[in-house]
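protien #1 (seq + structre)
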Amino acid sequence: MLARTACAAALIGAALVSVFGLLHGWWHVNRPKAARFSVRGVDVSRHQGDIRWAVVAREGGTAFAYLKATEGGDWTDPRFSENWREAKRAGLLVGSYHFFTFCRPALDQAEHFLATVPHDPEALPPAVDVEYAGNCHEVPPPEIVRHELMAWLDAVEDAIGKVPVIYVTAEAHKDFLQGAPLKNPLWIRSLLGEPKVQWLFWQYEARGTVKGIDGLVDLNVFIGDPAALGELASGRAGHSFGTPAIRER
């Protein structure tokens, strides 16, 4: 009896491994085609540890990097300054992002972000990360979240002079941004195919690998070509590249 049970368990385990392998293989086939999206980038935080940025730039096929700077009203990523310095030294276009929490006033969060990030005229536009994962347990009504988010966006744009990008998951987009008039370009997390809404950046992989980074990392593409990415960083891009309609302030 025990032998039959062990045999059955082994067969089930083998089947699960096989299914996982098929899904994993499909997952990685479902990547954006390089012929359409040639400009690739990563977004990182302290979780990626010590990054060899020269290798990332030289061998990783990476053109840009978004670096986690802050979270909430008082937390700073301990690797942000080093990542910013070394990624720029390696020749990548860099931008910073803030993890937006639902339980802290937006202006407190904006003040902390602005006090942390370099005001570099050649940096990519600042970004704000809006998602449920890792956020506060109590979520305010959607209209309150949207109001606070707009306050953060306006404060950061006024201080830096570039229209911030909104990183958003499909669930958060549906709950907080769908139907809202926005001028802010979107950075969409979509792991199962190209996003259905207009986007500027697309995070297509959350468990990717890049030379120069040990372990797993988020992978992204930009909707334009290298020249367009440079224009975006310099502030000359305007509201092109398929960004949403203009939000009235």
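ok now protien #2
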Amino acid sequence: MIWRNVIFLSKNFYYFCAPESVFFIIAMRKIFLLFYITITITALGQSSLTLSECQRLASENYPLIVQYSLIDASSEFTLDNISTVYLPQIQLAGQATYQTEVTKLKLKPNIQQYIDDINSAFGADFSVETLIAPMPKDQYRVYLEGTQVLWDGGQTSAGKKVVRATAEVEKQKITVSMYAIRQKINDLYFGILSIDGQNKILDLYSSDLQEIEKIVQSAVTNGAALPSDLNLVRVELLNLDQKKIELLSARNSCISLLSAFIHKNLTDSVRLEVPVDSEEISAEISRPELALFARQRELLAAQRKTVTAKNLPVLGLFVQGGYGRPALNMLDAAWQPYAIGGVQLKWNFGNLYNRKHDLNLIDNNLKMLNVQQETFYFNTNLEINNLRPAVDKFKRLIEKDEQIVELRAQVRQTSESKYRNGIYQMKDLIADINAENMAKQTKSIHYIQYLKSLNDLKIAKGE
């Protein structure tokens, strides 16, 4: 922008080259001021910031970024817990029971009749209970049991996939939330650039008015101009000071907000580089929301496998050792140690009741996800279709601004000549200078708006 203004002034410099022109010094000062600004900016390059750098710093320092590591840690803890299914499980248990009936031996009727006849003949009281003591109704047992799962139907594997998929969904949600920060950085960055552009134009305008003030002061002293002309110039200088104060306040506010977003203390003198004017934009949408939809589909697929796995049997080993009364021999009422081990198969058929319901719920969630993605594409395409005309609009406006600035400069040059010849009033000259300055500001604002709309379009596309 600066070099364009320099070339423009150089093309029109001949208007001011007449030695008798009182505005020759003004033109020279404007050109040298433009060169000075260009050289100063180059020298202060080390204190500049780019839009991409601001976007990177904002994403790296936004408080939400901490949740990435928290999600990873949480998923690792959950995976560790799930993996314990295949570790040997040991439990210590004990029980004390009382029952109203216990196991007893019952003889066949003919054998019992034979024993009764013997008892009657010999006057004896022989029975089974005299040979085998009956079981006690109060029983006790303390045991240590160990189990080892050999195959759980794939529940552990499916559960791990669900945990990993859930973690990816949560992290992608954070990515989507942080992507919205790009637009805020965009607004602040181009807002500051717009203010800087207006400030530079006001500096040039102020320099012109200061030179005019000196010339008019000399003319008033020599009786060639009225004091009111000098007052008009000074009022305009004061108006410029007010505009600069407003712009400075707005810039400081934007710098403060930008500093907070990128977590970096920015001074008031920091310079923001104007982004490269590039309209190369991908035709495809690559927003992080699309990756979120993909992660959510992976989660639903993992949940479907979980439903299948929990309806399969679980195969494992077990061993149990303890001390009780009775032990394994139910007919021995003495306290004894015991041990037992083997293979066990468990199959919970109760999960089959909910299987169809669970699968239908997953299918319904998938349909809802598809609707959400279609809605996202619809809204995004609307936004893109709204931004493309804005880019073209500002390009056309800038072309007209070039012509307007050139014509306003010619009008101002004619007004200066009229004022020198005493056929033009100072208020009219200032009005023409203001019109030229406004045209330059409008051109500068349109150019920044063009760059902003271009970058807004890139953000909407996901670049």
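The first helix runs from residue 2 to 11.
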